[in-house]
Amino acid sequence: MNHTLTSYISLFDKNLQATHRIQRIEIPLIQRDYAQGRHGASVERIRKDFVDALHDAVMHDDRPISLDFIYGDVVDGTLYPLDGQQRLTTLFLLHWYLSWQAGEPIEGQAWRNFTYATRASARQFCEALANYRPPAGETDLKGWIVDQPWYFHGWQHDSSIRAMLVMLQALEQRFASASSEAFAAAWERLAATDHPAISFHLLPVVKNKLNDDLYIKMNSRGKPLTPFENFKAHFETLLKSACPAQADDFAHRVDTVWTDVIWAYKDADQLIDDQFMRYFRFVFDLCAWREGNRADSKASLDQLAQSLFASDQAKAVEHLNYLFAAFDIWVDLDTSDAFNTWLRAADARSPSALLLFNPLRTQPGQSRIDLFGGCCRHYGDSEWSQAHSLLLYAVLLHRVHNTADFPEQLRIVRNLIEASGGGEMRAQNMPALLEDVRRVIVDGTLDGVSTFNQKQIANEKDKINLLAAHPSLREVVYQLEDNSVLHGALAVFDLDPAQDPAIFAQRALAFLTLFEDAHCWPQLTGALLSLGDYSRKQDRYGGYRFFDFGSPRSEAVWRDLLASRKSPELVQPLTQLLDQVAQSGNDLAVLKEIQQAFLTACERDHVLDWRYYLVKYPRMREGNSGRYAISQRGYSICMLDKTVMRSYYRDPYLSAVATTSGLKVPDNNLWFYGYETLRRGLERTGGTVTIESVDEGWRLENLPDDPELVRNMEDLRASFDIGSDQIYRVPQENGIDATDRIMLGAKLLHALDELGL
C-alpha cells in the first residue's frame, strides 16, 4: 500500500513525494460535523485523553505519537479527507493555538489553508480564524472570539463551530501552565519536518486507486472509537496497574473467545458492542453486590471499573478472577441449548426444564428463556428485572462451581423470588439476596437464608420434608408449583409428611382441575363461598370492611389470595372443596351442587345473610378485583373492579335486583363513585323513585311532588307496608333476612314502574 508518513504541516511541503502537492484541506460535504468538541460524558473523556496525548507529544522530546492513517481524495491540490476529519480539524486548531502562543508569524503559512464545506458558516469561521489571532496574554479564547466583529451571532447554532470553540478551551486549559519558552519549544517539535512530534500516514486515493468500501475493510482505526472500544482501552490500562499479570490475558480474551461468545447475540447491524457493555455492567454490579455494596446505575462503566479494579482496591484481583469466570463459563457452550435444558416458557414442552414465570419479551427469533442473551440485550432497561439478575446469578454459580442437584436448587430459588415481591426485592437488599442464592445453589441449604420471604422459606422446608417422606409426590408437587396461580407457593396445602400421600395427590389433581380452567372460576367463587367465608379482611370506617375473595377472571387476584395464606379461614373451605371435587371424579358440575346445597340449607333455616345472596346471584360476584366493601350486617356492599374506592364500582344488590326485575336499567346507572358510606340508589328508565339496599330492606328516595304521583305513592306504601321512614322492610329474624330481598325488591320495582313512579 503506497502511503507516506507525514505531519500536518508537512502535508503542504512542496517536496512531498508520495502524493501530489497539497495546497489546502477541505472537509467535504459528505462528512459529518466536527464531533471532538461536543458535550457528553463519553465525548468529554475521549477529548481529554486526546488532548493529553497531544500535549505530551509536543511538550516532551521523547513522546512522539502517530495518529495512524488519514485517507482521502487529492484533487487539484486539495485534500478531501474521507477518514481523518476529526483529527485534522483538531490538528488545525492545535497549530493555530501553538503558533499564537509561540509568537510565530501567521501570514503566508500554508497550514492555514484549512476549511469546511459542510456549512458556509463553518467555512467562514475557519477562514476568519486563520487570519486573526488574540492579543498576547489573552486567557479566554472563546470569549475573545465570540466578541470579535467578524464573529456572527448566528454561528452559535453551527455544531461544528461550537465544537471547535470547546476544543480551543480544552487546549487552553491543558496548556495553561506552560511558559513562553515551553510554547516555543512545543511549536518547534510540532512544526519539525523530520521527526515531528505528531505524525500520521497519508493514504491518497489518487495513488492507490482505493474505494471507500475497501478502505473501511482495510483500516478503521481512523474512525472515532466506539464507547466499548474506549472502555476496553481504559480498562486494559487500569488492569496493567492493578493486575498486571492478567492484563494481557484480558486483552486477548475479550477480542477472541469472549467475542465469539457474545457474537451469538449480535444486532441487526452485526455489532456486539452494546451487548458486551451490558454484560460487563451486570458482572460489575455482581462484584459490587458480592462486596456488600449497592450498584450505582448512574455511574459510567469506566467509573464502575475504577471503583472495583483500581490498584488501591483490596479485592481487585478477586473481582477480576470473577469477571474472567463470568465470561469463561459460556465459552464453548451452546447457551441456547443449555438454557432450554434448565428453563422453559409456559408454551414450551420440556417437562424436565423449570418453568420460568417471567420470560423475557423478545424479538422474533430470540429466546425468551436464555437469560445470558437477555442480559446482553436488556440489562439496565425495563425489560430486565432483579428477578432475572438473581436467576442468572444462580446459573453462574452452578456453572462456576459445578453444583449438584441444580434443577432442584434452581426451582427453590425461583419459588423464593416469586414469593418475595412484597418488599424483599429491593435494590438495597441485592447483596443479601445474592448471598441467599449462593447458600441455596452452592451450599445446598436453606439454613441461613434470611432475606427472601420468610413464609416461603418455611414452605420450601416443608416441601423438602414431604418429598423426603414421599418421593412419589415429587411430580405432583412440581405440577402445583408450576401452576400459574400458585407460582411455587403451596401454603394452602397440608404438607405434613405423616399424611396419606394418596389424599395429597387427589387434592392436588382437584386443584389443578379447578385452577387451570378459568372458565369455571365464576362457579368456583360461589362454591368456595358456600363452604365458608374464606376472605381476607381489612377494617375500614363507618362499620365497613374490605373482604378479598377470588375473582371470576383475574389470575393475579387468586395468586395474591392463595399464595402466601395459611389461615384456617381459607385452608378449611378450600380443602373441603378439593375433597368434594376429587370425590366427584373431578367433575366440575359438583360446583353447582355445592352451591345449591348451601342455598337450600339457608332457605330451610331462614338465614339469608350476605353470603347467601353472593352465592345465589352470580351477578353479585362479577367484581374483577375480588374486593368488596361490606357493611357490618352485610346488606350494603360495594363490588370493586379495582382495589381502591377511588374508582368506579358497582352495588351488587342493585345489580342483582335490576337483572332479576327484567326492567330497563342503563348499565351506567349501576356504577357509582365515592366512599362506601355514601348512598347508592337504583335509577330506572322512565322512573323517578330510586331504591337503595339498607339493613332493614329497601329504602325509597326521590319521592314525587306531582299530586297524581303522590296518590300513586300512597297506594304503593299501603300495598308494601312502607312506613314514614320510606323503607320497604324485608322479613328478618335476629337482624338476618328470612325472605329473599332480591325477589322482594324486583316486585317493588315492577310496582313502581306500573304506577309511573
Automatic annotation (TrEMBL):
Residues 22-235 form the GmrSD restriction endonucleases N-terminal domain. It holds the Pfam family GmrSD_N. This is GmrSD restriction endonucleases N-terminal domain-containing protein.
